[in-house]
Amino acid sequence: MKKITSIICLLVLLTACSKPKITKLIKVSNLEELNAAIKDCKAGDEIVLANGVWKDVEIKFSGNGTEENPIILKAETAGEVFIEGVSSLELSGNHLEVSGLFFRNGHSPKTNVIAFRTSAKEVANHSKVTNCVILDFNNLERDQDNIWVQFYGKQNELSNCYIAGKTNGGPTVRVDLKGNQSIRNYHNIINNHFGPRPRKGGARGETIQLGSSFTSMSPSNTTIANNLFEECNGEVEIISSKTNFNIIKNNVFYKSEGSVVTRHGNYVTVDGNYFIGDGVNDQYGGIRIINTGHWITNNLFYKIKGKNFRSPIAIMNGIPKSPLNRYNQVTDVVVAYNTFIDSDSPWQFGVGTNISQADVLPKSEIRSARPLRTEVVNNVIYNSVGDANPIIEHDKADGVTFASNIIDNNGVDFSKRDGLTSKKLTLTPIGSDISAPVSGFSDVEVYNGFDFETITEDVLGNSRDKSNQVGAILDVENIKLDILNKANYGADWYSNEVEIRDPKTHSVSNASELVAKLKDAENGDILELNAEVFKISESLIIDKTITIQSKGSTEIVYEGAANTPAFSLTPYGKITVKNIKLIGNTSNYAFASLKENMSNHFGLEVIDSEISNFNYALRVYKQAFSEQITFKNTTISDCENGIELSEETKDRGDYNTEYLTIDNCTFNNVKQNVVDYYRGGYDESTIGGNLLITNSTFTNSGSEEKNQRLLNHNGIVNVNINNNTFKNNKVKFVSILWGAKNNVESNNTLINSGQIKTEENLVMTLMY
Amino acid sequence: MKKITSIICLLVLLTACSKPKITKLIKVSNLEELNAAIKDCKAGDEIVLANGVWKDVEIKFSGNGTEENPIILKAETAGEVFIEGVSSLELSGNHLEVSGLFFRNGHSPKTNVIAFRTSAKEVANHSKVTNCVILDFNNLERDQDNIWVQFYGKQNELSNCYIAGKTNGGPTVRVDLKGNQSIRNYHNIINNHFGPRPRKGGARGETIQLGSSFTSMSPSNTTIANNLFEECNGEVEIISSKTNFNIIKNNVFYKSEGSVVTRHGNYVTVDGNYFIGDGVNDQYGGIRIINTGHWITNNLFYKIKGKNFRSPIAIMNGIPKSPLNRYNQVTDVVVAYNTFIDSDSPWQFGVGTNISQADVLPKSEIRSARPLRTEVVNNVIYNSVGDANPIIEHDKADGVTFASNIIDNNGVDFSKRDGLTSKKLTLTPIGSDISAPVSGFSDVEVYNGFDFETITEDVLGNSRDKSNQVGAILDVENIKLDILNKANYGADWYSNEVEIRDPKTHSVSNASELVAKLKDAENGDILELNAEVFKISESLIIDKTITIQSKGSTEIVYEGAANTPAFSLTPYGKITVKNIKLIGNTSNYAFASLKENMSNHFGLEVIDSEISNFNYALRVYKQAFSEQITFKNTTISDCENGIELSEETKDRGDYNTEYLTIDNCTFNNVKQNVVDYYRGGYDESTIGGNLLITNSTFTNSGSEEKNQRLLNHNGIVNVNINNNTFKNNKVKFVSILWGAKNNVESNNTLINSGQIKTEENLVMTLMY
């Protein structure tokens, strides 16, 4: 073993503390030195990782520090130590601290990137990971699930970190409670910036999960506070609380397509959080409530347009005597002192009721148990555009007490209910681009429920002691919210704000130039094709955001081998093709993803183009995922297969694209898989994918389709087929819609093309 | 309204307290005065109930005291205020205190006798009921369930009370958790004496129940400490914990036929309790464990012979993903520092496994999930008679860690297991009639699990800090347990110890004397019949413990009306008939219970007698219950019906007698219901009744039995049919035994009497 390069002993007399603090600095430059330093480390030691790239390192940091003298593992310069390749970090022992590391360009060989344990029996306690970044540290395949930060033990902390870009399955952060070593853990997840997590396509994309259904009876006592969640779009649950006594406080959920969900477990406090939408995107959610004893207080909902499962307050129906992993009845929940501004139908009850599906679901799946002993009180609703249904009862809210709630619905009628009173409110600016009703309603008597004296503060931390009033915000002077200032969250050396760069347009005159310039182009650039024909014999690799376009009717003739694509869609590859005629040799493909290692998402947009003579217009393999695939003003003709997105056949709820949009297109002589888009597995809380087919014409297609359907979209939750013409397609059905979900069609013309049928219920595999 | 009779104001300056305490004494003599006093009461008031009988009073005690100045409702002299008739007590408000009352000779008009609330919304907090007695305050019918003390609200106390004799359904004491007003209640149930609760016959006979399956996820934080449970035989669960975070500490379970059961909910502490049996009765149990996170520490088990469900430590199998009201898997349980003395097979795992019944039970009833992450460590076993199976695995204990356990098995071999080591131990006397291993094993290294540093004391409260060792008792000098001294528990003015009185024998010469002397006799007396024939035309009322016997062959000829009994078995009536010939008129009965209002148990023993020419030898109606019914050396002949105990047809698990014993008897020409004993309803944890038929002869009987069975005992759990002769009975079956339960037969002779069949599984109604 190499000798440790430098040891510096320091004797630091801390003036604020009576005990002298002894610190030993040990600088290490490689894994061997690091392991040696860890092996010898004692309370007070600081192990310093030299700046630079640390590749393929599996760090096991074990030691026993003390409260006064923790053992520290830190970057020489915060942000200049890069953990790359196949790497991981595990901690065990007591009072350990890790800081300043940057995990990037790699993935973990284990089931987690950072774990607060080194073996099943050796956990960390009183330890923290702080001021670190984990960015795009994804496994190679989407369904190789893992967790980026996994908590075990007790009293651990993840603070001031920036964590973003997880595309593979598994929550970004999970608290594990299996074992006495990890209950009543009082972990803190604080001051972090959870940056964009792209839509995963299906379940298992939570940003934070606290326990699992198997430990739903366990007391976790985890605090998630003062974090910024920005575009955390992984799935319908941003935070999935599955244990007892968690506290979710003062977080900002900004343009995040999901909700805070008390999925299992009880007695969760969701207090003083900000849910900020844009008034348009109806994927941004609020708080979805299941189980017993939660207190939802002092939260501010601003322009949240989520519906049903994603509504600002979604109170679910339970399953009577529910199995452990399903839906317990909501009881003893308090929803008090919240403010809802321009958020549609904010209170929804009996969400998830499925009594009508009793024929196709087992009895143990029927959610018929309505909320009991639940109080919705002291809340304020303000709608600048009136909302006819501030309350939606999917099932009766007869177990809910409403009291001392006020609403300004700007003159629009709504169905009246005791405990929700109209009142004219005025808005006060409380920050940049945000106003809220704050004053003028102190005359509304507050409802005092059991233990309400414990609600001592408003969302801003002002005391309710003296001049209490309904709503999340007390009437104090000069409120200036600064909740979206990213400098307040995450690592102090990292920002995800990037300067917007003007795209560069590269003129391309021949095929070899196309290959070369595509390779050299930067993210966002445009390749302008300036010849009539480009003959290409090998796949063009798309690994960045790029636009390929022409002014006139440029042809790209792909002469490559059978079953290879003209455009190979690889991780991060997002291509827009505009005004191009793409011509194949009947055996090869126009577009295809990689067959494996699609460690990050691709994207595809085809506009004003023609695709002909291919085996597949688009073939997306299992594990590949795109947030959006769009065809617009485009013709697909004389192809064996059309748009193929049906390989996620494991029936775990996954699918290949969140949105597939086909607008004003023509399909002619596409023999099979004309549109084939699949999602399998029964999961009531998966809300994708989305298929939109409008203003298009399908002729002479589908003749080879074995199931005799022209458009296959089995299991896709949102389907919209409008204003299309189907003519001379030899199929039995143009489409079979799923009536119980959001599948609709209108204004289509069918000539000699079978029919469109709606089946109310679809028999699907249960996922759990 | 009458004027309050006397108001005395006192100004008491408490020397121990800096605040002056103002007390107003208000003495009341009737309900009107009491109600007026309650209406006006203020902090510091003491309402004094005049001595005497308070009949038919429904007391609602509401008020707001303070910690320093509670409002007190008390007996003029503790124990001299009798609450009788149709009466109840309800409390609501804060800091109330009730003391000195004696509930007897009556029952409650409500669903509880004492309730810590006056309406669904008005509960009591910081209030207590102390130094009171509730005795035999039973509803008129056994299945009119109620609760004697029902907790609502928070921080209430039941202390120093004596409570005994509940025969009707429903737990004696229950903590209710429905609603935010009653969670995290920190109630205290302390220093009480729970006196004998007779066997109820079926479920719903718990002494204390903490919550219900519907609130099993709720934090209760109730403490049950320092109580004496004496002969609490109501059902298999003495304490049924159904919520989280309860503490069951330093209680004495003395000759109680049941167990402490963590039926639902998690994280219960069962610490420092004494389970005292007699080395014979195998109904005395220990601790039965279901669910997660319980800590079973420092308990002492002495001569506990319970098996399977009632074994000292019974760890159950769970149902995978169990429904809320069934059996969750056992996980993360700690069983540490307990001592087991002369207690058979004290550790049983996989209790309740029923994988073999998969054919007759729904999947959601199959208990196949074995315990996980469970530690059985630092325990001591001493067997003066060696036990071949200290560990029984009904299903594999592969998820259990054994470590640092020692056993002295007095030389008897047992199947070895890591973590359970043989060691020679010696017994030290630690109290009257009790010895335990205390010293000589300090060399055994204790196992230190997660959080084991929180186990700071032994069963006696001695610190484990300095000289820790395995087992419940540390090695300190002069241990003198005084745990069975009844003066340490219950009301200070009441004792259930009665002087034993020698029974008096009354000589009876004719029928009218028999009626008169039966009426006048005292409990336990003997009537000696000294004539040859007693002709009786009206039922003899049995309402006490009495023996009726003769020296020779005395006849009692019952000439009463059809369908009336010679002996009418009424509440508390326990009769022994010895050496008597009982003769009917073919239309009337020998023995029968009342048809209704059997508010307490009866008993029947018939020895050396003959019963003939009756419609029924014994007819027991629905709701009537006897702990024992015995026929010995007795002939039953020429009767239309024999022994009829089959009217509990609601299938809620109830039955009419705990034990039916027929030994050395003869049945001849009994046409139907020869023996008809029924229990209905599937409930894996009901362990009765008990049918023993031995050395008897059945001839020419059962000819009119519609189901063609001679002995009917459908649903009875323990059946023993040995050494009998069955001859010329026109039936298809003598008996159909339930193979999965404890139903056995041996050495029977069947001549022209059909057969005995065993059916492994019985299809029964599910009870829940």
The span between the termini of chain A is 50 Å
Anisotropy-based shape of chain A: globular
CATH homology superfamily of the largest domain in chain A: Single-stranded right-handed beta-helix, Pectin lyase-like
Radius of gyration of chain A: 28 Å
At CATH level 3, the topology of the largest domain in chain A is: Pectate Lyase C-like
- DSSP E strands of chain A, number: 68
Structural class by SSE content of chain A? mainly beta
Oligomer: homodimer
Estimated share of beta-strand residues of chain A:
35-45%
The CATH class of the largest domain in chain A is: Mainly Beta
Low-confidence runs of at least 5 consecutive residues of chain A: 1-18
Count of helical stretches of chain A: 2
Q: Kindly report the greatest chain-chain contact and the residue count on each side.
A: A-B, 32 and 32 residues
Whole-number tally of structural domains of chain A = 3
What fraction, in percent, of the residue positions of chain A are helical? Answer: under 10%
Average pLDDT level of chain A: 94
Largest sheet of chain A: 22 strands, parallel
Q: What is the CATH architecture term of the largest domain in chain A?
A: 3 Solenoid
